[in-house]
Amino acid sequence: MVWIIWFIAAGVLLVAEMLTLTFYLLWLCIGAVAAGLVSLAAPDAVLVQVLTGSLVALGLTLFSKPVVSRFRASQGFKDIGTDIVGREGIVVQPIEPGRYGQVKVGGDIWSAASVQQLSVDEKVRVISRGNAIIEVERWEV
């Protein structure tokens, strides 16, 4: 029954991955699936399961970095995240300094932070982007 725990962990990591827009949790998810598969074959070998999951996640992390770097450097690659800086958005959930709100930019809704108090329907400008959180300021013409 240990395999259930591995697959639940993989599902939780997959959902978290979709919220963070990175690949690190995806590699851990795949590692958990590998450990779950080992668990199905050898239910009592917990150490082997942990080692398999760890090695798969570590291998994916180490070997995917050069591939991702080459992909990002390729001609025609356009990172949606850097394209968002400078664009106009609309606050859909209030933002207070030190607390996150939400901003709609184009058709996407982003978690956002600001040093200013911003209310719903206020126009904002994206000034930077982290992994999944953008920083905004009041749009002033």
From TrEMBL:
Residue span, NfeD-like C-terminal domain: 83-138
Keyword Cytoplasm: no
Principal place of residence: membrane
Ion transport as UniProt keyword: no
Transmembrane segments: 7-40, 46-63
Alphabetized UniProt keyword annotations: Membrane, Transmembrane, Transmembrane helix
Signal peptide feature range: none
Source superkingdom: Bacteria
Location of the protein in the cell: Membrane
InterPro entries: Membrane_assoc_protease, NA-bd_OB-fold, NfeD-like_C
Pfam families xrefs: NfeD
Cellular component GO terms held in the UniProt record: plasma membrane
Membrane topology qualifier: Multi-pass membrane protein
Name the UniProt record assigns to this protein: NfeD-like C-terminal domain-containing protein
Organism: Paenibacillus durus (Paenibacillus azotofixans)
